[in-house]
Amino acid sequence: MKITPVRAFLMTLGAIVIGFMLGRQITEAAWAAGRDPYLHLETFARVQAQIRAAYVEPKSDEELIYAAIRGMTTRLDEQSAFLDASHRSWIEADQEGQDASVGAVVTAHPDGGLKVDEVLEGGPGALAGLKLNDHIVQIDGRVLKDLNLLDRLNLLNGPRGTTVTLTITREGEAAPLVLPVVRDEVRRPTVSAELLPNGIGYLRLEQFRRNAADDVSTRLAALETENKGPLRGLLLDMRDNPGGLLDDAVAIADLFLSEGIIVSTRGRLGQATDEDRSATRQDSDRDVPIVILLNGRSASAAELVAGALQDHKRALIVGEPSYGKGSVQTWYEYPDGSALKLTIARYALPSGRVLTMGEGVVPDELVATPRTGTTPAEVLRGMVNASDHSDEAKAALLARLDELPPDPPPPSPSFIGPVKSRLDADPQLKRGLERLNERAKP
Predict the structure, then answer these.
(1) Is residue 337 a part of any domain in this protein?
(2) Active-site residue, 300 included
(3) Which one, out of 71, 114, 300, 422, has a CA that is 20 to 30 A from the CA of 27?
């Protein structure tokens, strides 16, 4: 539709009026509550001017204002965030399942920088020699230790075909390694599948990206075709799944539920703002026993699916309590290309449970991830419990223990390779398969 000058003027005028009315409503609400909504803006302006005039390094107004907004949003919760235009591209690419980067899954390293959790087979990182558990300490010569996670991730991304230089430390190597990596576009599989003996299907769901529900449905149909009939049971592995798109989570839960609420979202006033009910399932062959694997890195949409199937007695859950992220975020975009990701609601599972950090979905059968080594905190606890220490020495050790950060979660087992080759090193997978064989249809 062609937009005429008159139409453009009217649209702009309408946006201004709506913005003015919204701002006026917020201001009037603040005054009605006995607060001056602009009381502290003068202080903010004075601080900004003082920093701009006297700070040891020059800072632009844009830098200072963006920093202030980031500080404000980080005080809300872990999921709310303010992103400038340069930070948004990698998130949008991640939702689409595309990554014009180094072809690796990375997380924040406890000592700063980035830890390589997975190197995608055939990707640019693998071709350059990047390996699992590598510690990326510099990107293009820039030290990562004092950067926030978004800034670290953003440095990895860039135009396809450009080279990014990674400085890494690796266990067993005396000196840091320098790896030039040519960025490329990598499409990560959302779902992988394997047919196991006795008609058992295994689905590994890595993240709830766009069209994840269609991918799951397609993989299930392929497993049924390979099995020459309905599956006897399904092992759904959602460990390390950080979540993703709510609509796809609801659609995936709907594949296995014939009726009832899947999730309810509640906004600021505790009101139900949206309810999704599963449609009547048409394919009775999907009514198979299900065992779900979770761990402490399973979050958000993964918890929604697991919790809904658990509440409806549709699946048995094996593993560790999940992360506890029962909140819904939405994006607000601004003319300068920046965007605000803001938590607007919390969702409740069919039983009414609301997931919060430290209170995620609790498995029906707890099976821990084995640690590969002893943590510093465990060493200190052992020293405190030793009988040959004086009370004074034990008090000093307890003081040091209080200064330590919490023990990191144990490293996840490998999710690469056939299930049979991973069973001995993965007690959660092994126990989940045992329970599924006990429950499988004859």
Answers:
(1) yes
(2) yes
(3) 71
pTM for the whole structure: 0.67
Which of 325, 327, 338, 426 is flagged as catalytic? 325
311 is catalytic: yes
How far does CA 402 lie from the centroid of its chain?
Answer: 28
Q: What is the CATH number of the domain that holds 319?
A: 3.90.226.10
Same domain membership, residue 288 and residue 253: yes
Its domain, for residue 347, covers 191-371+410-439
Return the ∠ at Cα 88 (arms to 83 and 92), rounded to 5°. 140
Active-site residue identified among 134, 276, 311, 426: 311
Among residues 92, 106, 105, the alpha carbon closest in space to that of 341 is found at 92
**Is 297 in the same domain as 221?**
yes
pLDDT digits (tens, 9 = 90+) for 126-136: 899 999 889 99
Digit-coded pLDDT (tens) for 372-383: 667 777 777 777
CATH number at residue 150: 2.30.42.10
Report yes or no on 281 lying in a domain: yes
Choose the catalytic residue: 298, 300, 322, 327: 300
